[in-house]
Each structure stands twice: as structure tokens, then as C-alpha cells.
Amino acid sequence: EEVLTRQRDRGASFDVVPVPGALEIPGAIARLKGQYDAFVALGCVIRGETVHFELVAGESARAIMDLTVQDQLAIGNAILTTEDEEQALDRADPSRRNNAGHAVDAALILAGIGQDT
């Protein structure tokens, strides 16, 4: 919430686009490219007892990077991959790790690269 307020104060506008899971985030971004100057991928994948964690964590990160490099989209990635809920809460908390805030900042920096040329 703090990040959203700060960006509104700077004149930024944004939409929240819910998706079923972390694997669907890159697909949503791909479908929405051209409609936004930047994207922030927010999600959390907590390790379980199967290989599903590795699949979701790796494939979502790869697809985000592909969109960033190949399609030259400005994407801040805050899809958290954690061992447990405690780690997730630590990384999401704005007063602690604030990964979402850092992802917003990264997306805005990427969106500004090349804008002055």
C-alpha cells in the first residue's frame, strides 16, 4: 500500500490485474504489452514437498526475463520464491525487505531508459 501511495503522489497511474498463479503472470503481461509503460510482477511461490516449486519458480522467472529482454518490456519482478510463509512475509513487508517496492522502482527505472534520446 505504501508503494502505491508513493507512486500516486508522483503522478503514476496503475491497474491491478489478478491472475490465477505465478505461471500466468508472464502471459498476462504479454497480452497487455503496449497498454502500459511498465509492469510489476507480484506473487509468491512457497516450497512444498514436490518439484512443482522449482518448475513454477524457474519458468515464471524465465518467462519474465524473456519478456524483458526479447520484447524490451520494463518489468520489475517481485515473484517471491521462499521456503516458508515467514520468509514470504519478511520479503513482502514494506518496513523490512520490501521486495514489491524495489520491483516498482526497477520497473520505473527500466521504463525511463532510452526515453531521453
How would you briefly describe this protein structure?
By secondary structure, this protein is α+β, with helices and mostly antiparallel strands. 49% of the residues lie in helices and 14% in strands.
Structure description:
Helix 2 packs parallel to helix 3. The protein starts with a helix and ends in a 5-residue tail after the last helix. Strands 1-2 form a two-stranded parallel sheet. It has 117 residues and is α+β, with helices and mostly antiparallel strands. It has helices at residues 2-9, 25-32, 52-70, 85-92, 99-112; strands at 39-46, 75-82.
The domain tally reads 1
Determine the CATH topology: Rossmann fold
Outline the biggest β-sheet.
Answer: 2 strands, parallel
The number of strands is 2
Provide the descriptors you would attach to this structure in a database record.
two-stranded parallel ribbon, 117 residues
Write the layout of secondary structure elements.
Elements: H1 2-9, H2 25-32, E1 39-46, H3 52-70, E2 75-82, H4 85-92, H5 99-112
Parallel strand pairs: 1-2
